[in-house]
Each structure stands twice: as C-alpha cells, then as structure tokens.
Write a structure and sequence with these properties.
This protein is of the alpha/beta class. Strands 1-2-3-4-5-6-7-8-9 form a nine-stranded mixed β-sheet. It has a three-stranded antiparallel β-sheet with strand order 10-11-12, with no helix packed on it. The radius of gyration is 21 Å and the shape is globular. The mean pLDDT is 96. The structure holds pyridoxal-5'-phosphate (PLP). The site of pyridoxal-5'-phosphate (PLP) has 7 residues, from strand 2.
Length: 365
C-alpha cells in the first residue's frame, strides 16, 4: 500500500497516526477498491456511525480481500443501517447510562468510568456505538471530578475501570490527573484501562511520558482488545513489551464476531499469538445485541464449539472465559461446554479433552 511509503519516524508517531486517520470515502478509495455495500455504507452511516481508520490499522488490511477481518471491523457497510439491524438492536443493551454521566456502578466492588467519546478507529462492532454520533468529546474536568467524588463516597469500590471511547487518547496530563485523584482514595486498589490502542495505534506506547505515568500509579492494568491474529504485529508486540517492562500487566478481551474470528482455528491462532507476546486472554465475549452491530452476532453454540476446540490444544493460560452479558445490565455470565456427561451423587462421568467418557467417583475424606 502507498501508505507504507511514509518515513519511519512519522509512521511511529502516534500523533501522526491520529492526524492522518482516513475518514472519508474519497481518501479510502485511494487505498482500497471498495465494494458497493461499503460505498453506500460510508455514505449512509455519516453522522450516525462515522468512520475513522488509522493508517497503521489500514496497513494490516489485504485490499484484495473483501472479507478481510481488519476490513470488516473498520469499514462501514450498509448492513449497519439495515432496517432489521436497527430495529432488533438496542443502543444501550447493557444499561450503562446512569445518574452520573460516564459512570456505571453495576458490581458492588467495581465501577466503569467512560472518559471520552474519541476513538482512534471506530470499530464497526463497538458495544458503545451509541456514542459515535455524539462527536469526539472528552469529559470535562467537572464531569471527571463528579465521577471521582462518587468513587470517594463509595467505600465498597476497589476496582476502577477507565474506558471510553479511547481513554489513552487523553493527554498525559489529563491521564495523570485522573490517576493521581484516584490514588488519593484509600479504598481504590486496582485501576484498569480498557484501551484498544495496542491494536489500533500501538505507537501511543512509544511515549515514555505515558509509560512513566502509568508506572507511577501502580497497580495499573491494561485490558486490551485483539480480535484476530493479523492484529498481533511487531509494533503491537513492542507496545505490549514496553508496558510489561514497566510492570503493567496486559490482558485481552476478544469479542466473538461473525466472519471475523468465528472459526475455531482462527481463535486458536489468536490465543496462541497473544501468549507469544505475553498477553493473557481474559474474556471471549459473546457479541451483545447492539443497535447497528447485530449482524456480527453468532449463535452461542458457535462460542461453545470454539471453547471446546481450544481445550487441549493450547496452554490453560491461553483459554479465556467465554461470557455473555445479561440484558438489563444484570452482569456477565460465564459459559462452558458441558463436561459432565452424567452425575449420580458423587459418581460422575466426565468428558475428557480428547472426547473420552471417564467415570470418576469423588468422595470427600
Ligand atoms: C464488565 C464490567 C466490569 C468489569 O467486570 P470484570 O469481570 O471484573 O472484568 C465492571 N463494570 C461494568 C459495568 C462492566 O460491564
């Protein structure tokens, strides 16, 4: 791709990547021969579900392949505004919006803060697609302070998950402010960032100032979002490595997406690629019924089939928890293949990883 002729110092500059995001049909057509459903998709999602793609993320795409997994995640298609996809999805299926703007307090010990609507790339499957049309806006200092006051007043909160949009798109000073204020609260033990920048613009982590800040307020964890083995590149590996060297663990949350990663072999390769760069696969989420994104949903049987396939083919460390989010904001539920074929009292018949039925009586001493 012509994009690749950019000098290396620019290519490795996060701000250059953000400034040069591809946001219009005309620009994108310079690099990719678009399908009619993409051309119409970009036109008809304007203002509702806008497009933005970093040159880096675009460079991972095979422009010859209409079903390329990067392409499916980044380029709008007309199906997003299809009548059924609009009607059957909900803007806020997980009921995140509450009394305090940007704050969701669902589990007693954990709270979710969304600090900006800005993202490096607007993923077509985003669970917060409802915020795309709000424009790119970071929360004001007053809004952040209000969230932090709430956390200060609720002593049961031990874990703060900072998300967005893209929380690490904020300037280092603003990130430092949030971390400093949270660390003043004695009951806050864990701080996590939900960030997709290791995948979309890993150059963000080449900024020593950011790494200094994240390290300073330890323990800070990163939850990222790799969905396909093609996203595990040299640059993303370098970003992860820099975080790990500063003592910042990196866990991954994948979303099961039709056409992107719903082949068992693809998912296995993704999990193997993540372990190679020392990222722990934490969750595999079933795709939520989000307005404008339900065309990415698979059956639950597909997810179970994938989980069954993983077991025995990869280290246990590489097996995520498959989970569905319950409607009405009732929280996450883990799902497993059924490995108990029969049970009478303490006598079980288990199914082994290789599919063998094994009888086992387990008595308490
Ligand atoms: C997923 C989620 C969390 C974090 O859950 P973990 O299982 O600890 O990762 C916290 N708050 C909300 C609202 C969530 O949706």
């Amino acid at each position: 791709m012509e994009l690749l002729k950019v000098p290396k110092d620019l290519w490795n500059d996060y701000n250059w990547q953000i400034r040069n995001r591809i946001k219009t049909l005309e620009e994108l057509q310079r690099y990719v021969k678009l399908l009619p459903e993409e051309i119409e998709g970009i036109r008809r999602t304007q203002g509702l579900y806008p497009m933005a793609i970093t040159p880096y993320y675009l460079s991972l795409m095979d422009p010859e392949d209409p079903e390329d997994p990067i392409r499916l995640q980044a380029i709008p298609r007309v199906v997003e505004v299809d009548e059924k996809v609009q009607r059957e999805g909900e803007p806020d299926a997980l009921r995140e919006e509450g009394d305090i703007p940007g704050l969701t307090h669902r589990y007693p010990d954990r709270v979710l803060m969304t600090v900006t609507t800005f993202c490096a790339v607007y993923c077509r499957h985003c669970m917060r697609k409802r915020i795309f049309s709000e424009g790119e806006r970071a929360r004001t200092k007053e809004e952040i302070d209000r969230m932090i006051s709430y956390i200060r007043e609720h002593e049961e909160i031990r874990d703060v998950l900072i998300s967005g949009g893209e929380p690490l798109s904020l300037g280092n000073d603003r990130i430092e402010y949030i971390l400093r204020e949270l660390r003043k609260i004695r009951h806050v033990e864990i701080i996590r960032f939900g960030t997709r920048l290791p995948v979309l613009a890993p150059q963000r982590f080449f900024d020593e100032g950011l790494l200094d800040t994240l390290e300073k307020y330890s323990p800070v964890w990163i939850n990222t979002h790799f969905n396909h083995p093609k996203e595990v590149t040299e640059l993303s590996a370098e970003a992860v490595d820099r975080l790990l060297r500063r003592g910042i663990p990196v866990n991954n949350q994948t979303v099961l997406l039709k056409g992107v990663n719903d082949e068992p072999e693809t998912m296995l390769e993704l999990m193997r690629s993540l372990l190679r760069i020392k990222v722990k696969p934490q969750y595999l989420f079933h795709c939520d019924p989000i307005k404008g994104a339900i065309h990415f949903r698979t059956s639950v049987d597909k997810g179970i089939e994938i989980m069954r396939y993983l077991r025995g083919r990869i280290s246990g460390m590489g097996i995520p928890t498959y989970a569905v989010d319950l409607p009405g904001g009732k929280g996450k539920v883990p799902l497993l293949p059924n490995y108990v074929l029969e049970r009478k009292g303490n006598r079980f018949v288990f199914e082994s990883f290789s599919g063998e039925a094994v009888e086992y009586t387990i008595d308490e001493v």
